[in-house]
Each structure stands twice: as C-alpha cells, then as structure tokens.
Amino acid sequence: MKIDTPKIPEDVTERRFTDIFYEEDPEFEMCMVTDSEFADETLERVRLYKTVIRNCNFTNTDFNRIDLTNVRFENCDLSNANLGNASMNRVEFLNCKLLGSNLTESYIGNTTFEGSILNMVMFGNSKLEKVIFDDAALESADLFDCNLKKVEFLSCSLNGASFEETPLKGIDISSSNFDSLTVSIENLKGCIVSTSQAIQFASLLGLKIR
C-alpha cells in the first residue's frame, strides 16, 4: 500500500525542544530537533510541521491534542507519553519506543510505525486511515472500538493485542505473529489471515481440526 510520506524541506533550522517554551504558540515549523531531553513535561496543543525529531526523550510527557503534519521521529522514546486526541497526517515513527503510550481518541492518517515498540499502547476510539505498522511490536496493545481503514500489519508481533469492538474486514495480519488475540468472531469477518492463523482462529469457534 502506498501512503503519503512526510514532506520535509532540506533547509530546516536546528532547535532544542525546550525552545518551544519561548515560542508565542507551542509550535515548531521546518525544524530539526536532535538529542533533546523533554521527559515528564506537560505541553498541550503542540503543533509540529515539516519537522524532524531525532534521538529525543519524551517519556511520561503530556502532549494532549498534539498536531503533527509532515513529521519524522527517529530513535525517539515516547514511552508512557500522553498523545490522546492527537491529529497526525504524513508522520513516520522510525525505531521509536511508544511503550504504554496513550493515543486514544486520535486521528492517525498516512502514518508509518517502522521497527518500533508499541507494546501496551492504547489506540481506543481512534480512527486509523492509511497506516502501516512495519516490523513493529504491538504486544498487549489496546485497539478498542477503532475505525481501521487501509491499515497494514507487516511482520508485527500482535500477541495479546485487543481488537474488541473493532471490525477487521479487509485488514491483513497474515505476515504477523501472535499466540492469542482478543477479537470477536463477528469482527474477524473479512480479515486476511495466514493458513496457520486460520487454524488458531478456528479454535475460537470450538472447531476440532484433524
């Protein structure tokens, strides 16, 4: 699946993330932020536009209602960060940690999570449209009552993930692995699975395969 990737100009300005406190509005545009420490902070309605964030630590930071457009995160730690009510379009998370992060009630479009750890992340009540999870860990992730449209899980670890009240029609999980998933038979209809996964799901139906 082709998705729109971040459009970031080459002539970006070097900034430290703490500089955002001195802006009239909490926003960066056309910036490169590298090696910044911004853990345990609270900064709502942040807006990042045409920006690269590299090797930064945002653990336990409250970014409620963050607005991201044309942004790339590389090797960043956003574990336990609050990204609830976020708006994301044309965003990449490359080799990032979002362990236990909150992305509930968000819109996430044209976004890639590649080589990233999203174990125990919460996506509840979010809309994901044109989103690729590539070689990502989503163990015990919570995707409760989500609207998934053109979402791909490529070689992901989905063990213990919950898709409660989330229809998986047209969603391809065939290249991903799991021992257990929480999903209803009704919401599994139309999901694209591998032969071995079909056998796993058959046990949910109580079928005995010989």
UniProtKB/TrEMBL annotation:
Record flagged with keyword Kinase: yes
Keywords: Kinase, Transferase
Gene Ontology terms for molecular function: kinase activity
One Pfam match: Pentapeptide_4
PANTHER family per record: ANTIBIOTIC RESISTANCE PROTEIN MCBG, PENTAPEPTIDE REPEAT-CONTAINING PROTEIN
This protein's name: Serine/threonine-protein kinase B
